[in-house]
Please model this.
Amino acid sequence: MSFSYSGIHHVQLAAPANCEDAARHFYGHVLRMTEIEKPSNLKKRGGVWFVCGSQQVHIGVQEPFVPAKKAHPAFEVKGLKALREHVLANTIGIVEDEPLEGYHRFYLFDPFGNRLEFLEKA
Model:
């Protein structure tokens, strides 16, 4: 039997109940990801979905909620410096880390405490 991977369809990040407005502001307004409609049969679970390049970011309700402080998605960005400036202008703190050869990068935390990485090839 043979199979292969073609990529990652989506990343799921957990958030507390009633997270939708904060998620829309942060992922939609601050990070400028485009919201997509959840399938009608999944809407009752809460949360909100976004497009990020050819992948999706799903913000899903988890109770009890515990943020991912170490595990994280890493978003490859064109224009990392501009994103950094935009994030800082929206009073979101940036976390620097050890250099990663061949990349510029930074981390930040979403409104729910989940760690996110943003990087661009040097």
